[in-house]
Amino acid sequence: MRILVTNDDGIHAPGLRCLEEIARELSDDVWIVAPETDQSGVSHSLSLNDPLRLRQAGEQRYAVKGTPSDCIIMGIRHILKEHGPDLVLSGVNRGQNVAEDVTYSGTIAGAMEATILGVKAIALSQAYGLGGRAHVKWHTAARHGASVVRRGPGGRGRAGPLGHSEF
């Protein structure tokens, strides 16, 4: 299974490292295409007026000067054009995506863009406690992420189903 991983917190975010580990529990064919910088709160926006810049950041690892939606489009339509992903994972977001926050989330939008392009997708978010954003307990997502993905979206149809899980 080929997995494409993105996020909205940026290529160097700890949540992306966590999700990459989750993806590697599920497959040996993992590709990372994530924003060059933090894109939290950009929702489902696209970079229409600025050229997208793609930088190879390692083997099967790319940084895009753009939004999570840009990253998914770049990943599916350009980087993996010959053999697209079977699944897109977006996250693990630093902080929860619930209630109205869902509409602003670049993490959710990355997964939504994948479904628009016909690929099943799951967005994952990790809530943090009273200690704030600096004290996220990534081990919760790391421990349960692969089993959540295994039970993830199923079904058929032109657009792949979308799932979201909070830890």
Automatic annotation (TrEMBL):
<feature type="region of interest" description="Disordered">
    <location>
        <begin position="145"/>
        <end position="167"/>
    </location>
</feature>
<keyword id="KW-0963">Cytoplasm</keyword>
<dbReference type="GO" id="GO:0008254">
    <property type="term" value="F:3'-nucleotidase activity"/>
</dbReference>
<dbReference type="GO" id="GO:0046872">
    <property type="term" value="F:metal ion binding"/>
</dbReference>
<dbReference type="InterPro" id="IPR036523">
    <property type="entry name" value="SurE-like_sf"/>
</dbReference>
<protein>
    <recommendedName>
        <fullName>5'-nucleotidase</fullName>
        <ecNumber>3.1.3.5</ecNumber>
    </recommendedName>
</protein>
<dbReference type="GO" id="GO:0004309">
    <property type="term" value="F:exopolyphosphatase activity"/>
</dbReference>
<comment type="similarity">
    <text>Belongs to the SurE nucleotidase family.</text>
</comment>
<dbReference type="GO" id="GO:0000166">
    <property type="term" value="F:nucleotide binding"/>
</dbReference>
<dbReference type="Pfam" id="PF01975">
    <property type="entry name" value="SurE"/>
</dbReference>
<keyword id="KW-0479">Metal-binding</keyword>
<dbReference type="InterPro" id="IPR030048">
    <property type="entry name" value="SurE"/>
</dbReference>
<feature type="domain" description="Survival protein SurE-like phosphatase/nucleotidase">
    <location>
        <begin position="3"/>
        <end position="150"/>
    </location>
</feature>
<keyword id="KW-0547">Nucleotide-binding</keyword>
<dbReference type="GO" id="GO:0008253">
    <property type="term" value="F:5'-nucleotidase activity"/>
</dbReference>
<dbReference type="InterPro" id="IPR002828">
    <property type="entry name" value="SurE-like_Pase/nucleotidase"/>
</dbReference>
<keyword id="KW-0378">Hydrolase</keyword>
